[in-house]
Amino acid sequence: MTVVHLVADTNLFFECKSLEQLPWSELGYDEVVLLLTKPVLDEIDKHKKASGRTRSRAIEIYGRLRDMLVTANTEVVIQADTPRVVLRSLSSAKPDLGLKDDLDYGKNDERLVGIVSTLNSKAEKYEVKLFTDDTGPAMTAADLGVPFLMISPDWRRPSAETPEDKRIKELEKENKLYRLQEPKIEIGKCDMADERGHIQITRTVASPLTAEEIEAFVERLKEKHPPVEDFLPPPKEVTKDLFGSVMTIEYSPPCQEKIDQYRMTSYPDWLERCREVLSSVHQGRDQIEAPLFVRWPMVNQGTRPASKVRIEFEAKGSLALRRIVNRDEDDDDDNIQEVTAESGEPTPIVNCLPPAPSPPSFDKKVTKTAPPALVSSKPSSDLATLLAKGLEPGHRIALARATADIFGASDRLSQQIKDFSASRGLAGLQHSDFLGSHNATLRSILEPTPMWHQPSLRSSILDFGPRFPDPRNRERFYYEWPEYEEVKKGALTCELWRHHSEVETFDFEVVFIGEEAVKGTVECTVHADNLTTPAEARLVVSRKVEFLSMFDIASALVDACG
Questions:
Q1: Angle (CA) 487 490 496, round 5°
Q2: Which of 436, 443, 523, 535 is most buried by a 10 A CB count?
Q3: Whole-angstrom Cα distance, residue 519 to residue 542?
Q4: Are 131 and 112 in contact (CB under 8 A)?
Q5: pLDDT tens, 541-556?
């Protein structure tokens, strides 16, 4: 069990809370013995004739000592356990004579240091320390190697309340009652923000290949598609088919001009085009962050409506604000229609390298020997045979009759149509049946709808007439910053914001200025005529930039190059 004897300074009894209220467990001992020595008793005795709470404390301590004398007890228990704390009178303790040349025992603080030195030299199985809130005695003890322990500032009791303090409390109470009669604007957390009120997004930027990487990829292309150096022609080919036709193919090398064109121009130009493609492979691959739309909920939770409300949003740092103008503000739907600024055509992404050039082909001479003549058969002109192919039976007959009606037909052709119709059981089918479902379409063209029955025209006629602006709704918020423009500060106004009404959500786009990493704030302030202190909130917005290597993508392009 750890035990400590604390030689208490006067400030423990006058400047700290009552002994029963102090958190003794913070000292970390199993038992604490508070020693009242002669220098402290003399200080307490002087304060019995003072006034205020110092006098009350002095009388309280002397009351404890009187009880100890009456009951013949040497100590009184302050706390029974965890830890056990007792107050013990030790007026007979004397200062250490060995330190008389170092200390002025005419001063109470230095006498306490000398007493601690004496008691510590005689202590067995426990510690003795000076227990003070004053840095003067503590520094003296430290210089002489005397153990000490500082009283925690949290142990001090509140300062005495002055008349001015009482007056301030009364005014604060009145102000609180007054503010209870005001609107109470609560600004919620943005839906994309974290618990600290921060929003962070990421932009990924594709890094271009270095010159060394490009040359390394070009060398790989050379290894994959080396230039052709050998232009020796292949041997002669002779083939014969089943009908007896003989074909002879003889090859000869290409002319020197074509070979030089391939070696000196086509192949080097291909390598140069590949260099250009590889140098631009990063273009169009940046992963730009999506537009940042902020939705900020607010509600009036007070006991009164807020009158002449003005909500201001201000962007600070490299940020700007933009209204969401494609939202139907008369609709109660909370869905935000995302609107982005018009931009130019996106940079095309390189997905392949130009194919390697083909070497000049060999000159080829083909000689053919015709097979014996074949007897050709006369093509059939039978209409029934022709009609039996391609179309459905009904459509075939209708098509034939329509052809005969329009262009005229010989007796032989008409007879063939009749014979084929009879054989198929379709003798009564007319060419008009071939039109089928097209009749309704033709009728709609030939018989147009009257003008008055056309819905678009009727709607435009009925809607014709003077229009008047809708009256301004006093309980609705209206934007007071321009559309389609980026601003640093924008506001909304409302004549009357009802208390305990539904939550109002205000949305807008936060725009980053520049292409680099950005950090800034969006500050919200709510003013009202009957609101003493504006409601305020702040949102921290940042964008970090990460870089994406193009090495793997370029390597895949080289592997896929044909």
A1: 165
A2: 535
A3: 4
A4: no
A5: 999 999 999 999 999 9
Q: How far apart are CA 353 and CA 274, in angstroms?
A: 6
What's the token pair of residue 471?
A: 């009256």
Task: Tell me the pLDDT tens digit for each residue of 79-94.
Answer: 999 999 999 999 899 9
Under 8 Å between Cβ of 278 and 352: no
Reported as type and span, the H/E element at residue 84 is: strand 84-89
d(CA 228, CA 262): 9
Q: What is the pTM of this model?
A: 0.46
Pairing verdict, β 518-527 and 504-512:
unpaired
Q: Which residues contact 35 (CB under 8 A, 6 or more apart)?
A: 5, 6, 7, 8, 88, 90, 93, 119
Query: Among 522, 519, 520, which residue's Cα sits nearest to residue 490?
Result: 522
Residues with Cβ within 8 Å of residue 231, at least 6 apart in sequence: 253, 254, 259, 359, 360, 362
Question: What pLDDT digit, counting tens, does each position of 256-297 carry?
Answer: 888 889 889 999 999 999 999 999 999 989 888 889 999 999
| Interhelix angle 108-122/135-144, nearest 10 degrees | 40
Q: Quote the tokens at residue 388.
A: 């039996």
Query: Is residue 91 within 8 Å of residue 43, measured between CB atoms?
Result: no
User: What is the Cα–Cα distance from 91 to 530, expressed in whole angstroms?
Assistant: 66
**C-alpha span between 466 and 481 (Å, rounded):** 29
Sheet holding 518-527, edge to edge: 198-206, 535-548, 518-527, 306-317, 489-497, 478-479
Q: Which of 460, 199, 210 is nearest to 317 (CA)?
A: 199
- Quote the crossing angle between the two packed helices 267-279 and 211-224, to the nearest 10°: 140
Q: Among 6-10, 417-421, 433-437, where is mean pLDDT lowest? A: 433-437
Q: Angle, nearest 10°, between helix axes 38-47 and 108-122?
A: 150
Measured between alpha carbons, how far is 220 from 561 in angstroms, rounded to an integer? 11
76 to 2, 84, 89, 139, 510: CA distances (angstroms): 20, 11, 9, 31, 69
